[in-house]
Amino acid sequence: MGVKGLQGFVERVCPDACRTVDLREMAQKHCIDHPDSPPVIVVDAMSCVRYWYTPESWVCGGQWREFLAVLEDFIKAFMAAGIRLVFFFDGVVESKKRDEWIKRRLQNNKEIARVFQFIKTHRKEPGREMFVIPSALPTFTRFALKSLGQKTVCTLQEADFEVASYGLQHNCIGILGQDSDYLIYNTCPYFSIGKLCLDRLVTVMYSREDLCRVLGLSLTHLPLFACLLGNDVVPENLLEGFWHKCLVSSPCKNNSYNRRTNILFAVANYISKVPRSYSSLKHLEDILPLGSDKTLLYRGVESYLLPGQQSPWIPPKVTSCQMFSLQQETAICQDKEIFQLAKEQHVQSENYTIFNILSKGEIECSNSLEDESDTEIPGQALIYRPARQHIYSILLESGKGGACSFVKEWFVYFGNPLQHPELIQPVQPIPGGTPNLKTLWFAKGPDVEKQRYSTFLACFHLHDGMEYLQGLEAPVAAFCCLLVYLMMQVSSLSMEDLNAFVALVLCLKGKSAAELASLQLAQVDSRGVHLGAVIVRGLSTLLMANSACGFPFRMDDLMPWQVFDGKLFQEKYQQSHRGCSLEELLEGNVESMEQVIQTEGEDSMFLLGEAYKCTGFNTENVKLFSEAEKRNVLYYVPSNLVAINTLLINWKSSPSSILTSQMTHERDLEIKEILFHPYPSHRETDGI
């Protein structure tokens, strides 16, 4: 977030600090000056994500193939200029910034509520002025960039700190982002992603030196200046009295400026007259209403010092290496081999959330596009909590009897005020004991591979479905796993909902980003928007389970562009709920999809179609079809996709009952028997 108002101040009041630069020319100059070092730009990916997401539709769950194409074009533009990119993503929320994180999440809740109100009123997608990033966009952007061959780093500390450090230590030509903190760090030049013209590689470079000249400060003043204006460490509400005193005594007040601009000048004027010493900082801490935490100002200034840098305001600080060493000593996971591998995979963007759980026993999840007024669909945080509890058990089994008997969850959902973390108990996924984590992560051989796969499925209550799922292509096997889990967990999901999900995965196959971009929706349904967010968050839960279980799937197989598109799902959702024909739902490709499986055998099939049983569909509700509608139960392989059986049964019927949210053990077993018991291929639909 940086310093509120500073970016705008520089652009309005300090035009000399905003220089238009040609990144190609800068790269060429770098090559002349440093022939042994290629030009590198370090990218603050978290501040770039909303600029990268250019698809017109954003509310339906994400246009993932379009987004992937945008990222590919972005990378190609820099590669053509000989510029290498290194992308950094936030890997942690540090405790000192938790309050600010909570404040933003609660504000995002209000923005999302307004989005849903707009959709319900107008039945269409809101304009870009209401833009909220699609659920889990930063998570999947990280894996998208990695799949495109880019160096992608997930941080161990605040991302802006690691970005600034990397830029300085590796002699990068600049930082690309949109965060005014990069005006405060004494690091390489700061380029604006918001001003970037990609086809010409021209953008604005913000000059710290020119900013200091306008303010009458030196570079060493900037960290204290940022803290006294309010940032992620020092809250603004503690500084109002101080600002008033500065304004009263400032000779720089200008009635043509707004109040924030005058505050910036007044604070700069005050700082310029203060001796640069630790005692001056202590004096400021004494006069500010910092409450019980008198170290806020110290910690704020210290947070801007990069490795090897000193400040006149504070004594020599603890180095970052020392800080991480302390983190290791206090980690939940005491097995050094497991901890080290989790750390390496975290930094290299190879796993998802695992290091945070093993190091701090803590995890967070930001906002999702969920409708707070839809009480029939629980928040995704609650839907996937049982799966996460199984994942926690897998990760923490080596710590039985140790310090961590629960995981702290900071998950955003309506009704959660985020006043404190929820303490979630791990739950064993497999009766009789959890597999050993070292075995899952380090052992080799077919038996271990089978154990990884079965443990993954057990997280979603499907450990007895392995023989059927393994016959499918990996992306669809994982999607089937997710759908069956959802049908068992969410009591309000209907046959029409499941029809829409199945039609989505069948029709998405082979569609290009351009085809999906051209799809037009006559209207947008708010419940479909909510379900789109739920399914995408489910995919991120698959990532977590896959990471914990030793990667039975390739991470690339669990990405949303493999199985999901927001507009396409919205179309299938609306078609299904208005009772359209099978031909329309499957876009006229029914005949090609009805290839009866003669040679694959039961082991290659997973009866996804039987998940309709979970919607309460039963033989007593079936009406006779006309000959045109009457179809055999479908055991088919849609071209190079998967074996999916008993698809789209009895389109004109409505479910008469649904699963209760609290299933008995007997009902759970009954559902699994339905899901994993294949019917003979000649059986007709009226037998379902």
UniProtKB/TrEMBL annotation:
GO terms for biological process: fat cell differentiation; peroxisome proliferator activated receptor signaling pathway. Gene3D superfamilies: 5'-nuclease (3.40.50.1010). GO terms for cellular component: nucleus. Keywords: Activator, Differentiation, Nucleus, Receptor, Transcription, Transcription regulation. InterPro entries: Coact_PPARg, PIN-like_dom_sf. Interacts with ESR1 and RXRA. Interacts with PPARG; in a ligand-independent manner. PANTHER family: CONSTITUTIVE COACTIVATOR OF PEROXISOME PROLIFERATOR-ACTIVATED RECEPTOR GAMMA. Belongs to the constitutive coactivator of PPAR-gamma family. This is Constitutive coactivator of peroxisome proliferator-activated receptor gamma.
